Amino acid sequence: MHVKFDRDTCVGMFQCVAEWDAFEKDLNDGKADLEGSTEEEDDLFVVDVPDGEEFDAKFAARVCPVDAIEVYDDDGEQVV
């Protein structure tokens, strides 16, 4: 399972930070950062979800008010 995070779309509500420890507040930019991620394209970050953190990753995506977070299963199908 992996997460794609569109940082450009992020509006800094930080609800993801409350739901999954992989997200951190960047108060300088007013946006979240996805710890351990790699930048796939401009402001599009990707990270594999560690075992046992799948629920938290999915919940972080569900609470994002601007849908900046997408979760994909191992087959590449979007689940959130």
Automatic annotation (TrEMBL):
It comes from Halorubrum saccharovorum DSM 1137. Signal peptide: none annotated. It comes from the Archaea. Keywords: Electron transport, Iron, Iron-sulfur, Metal-binding, Transport. Pfam families: Fer4_15. The keyword Secreted does not apply. One of its GO terms (molecular function) is iron-sulfur cluster binding. This is Ferredoxin.
